[in-house]
Amino acid sequence: MKEHVFRLTEGTDLKTGIREYCQTNRITSACVICCVGCLTQISLRMAGGEVYFQDNNDREIVSLTGTVSENGVHFHISASDVTGTTVGGHLKEGCIVGTTAEIVLAELESVTLTRQFDEKTGYKELVISSNK
After folding, report:
1. E strands within the chain?
2. What whole-number distance in Å separates Cα of residue 55 and Cα of residue 44?
3. Can you say whether the dihedral through the CA atoms of 45, 48, 50, 53 is positive or negative?
């Protein structure tokens, strides 16, 4: 396992920024270890896949988790507002970094992660292959 630590700055789309970092650094299989920072805008797909949440108020990133594969990413995020009320869901484009987002990824060397469309779920689902 190889660690990657990087920072996204104000105005960067969180999902796009992570994806671009991985492309630039040729990371094809990884998981998010942690992310701290803030957002000025949030865009989530909620459980069930049919409801979306969007908001343009400042929020603190409470957690970010997920996987990076060579043909897609899958992230879930939780973020809290000024009252501490927290919302979470599937990270979509449109989550815009405020002052910073500090991210730690673990690049996985013993497995290769890919995504394949699953007719049952209607989504590209994770496929794990051993590199041993």
Report:
1. 2-9, 30-45, 52-55, 59-69, 72-80, 86-91, 96-107, 111-118, 123-130
2. 9
3. negative
Buried b (16+ CB within 10 A) or exposed e, 57-66: ebbbbeebbb
Burial class (CB in 10 A: 0-12, 13-18, 19+), 77: buried
Distance of CA 127 to the CA centre of its chain: 18
Please give the average per-residue pLDDT across 82-99, as a whole number: 96
Q: For residue range 111-128, list pLDDT tens digits in order.
A: 999 999 999 988 899 999
Q: What is the pLDDT of residues 24-69, one digit of tens each?
A: 999 999 999 999 999 999 999 998 888 999 999 999 999 999 999 9
Q: What is the pLDDT of residue 132?
A: 77
Burial class (CB in 10 A: 0-12, 13-18, 19+), 71: exposed
Residue 45 is predicted with a pLDDT of: 92
d(CA 68, CA 19): 8
CB atoms within 10 A of CB 31: 15
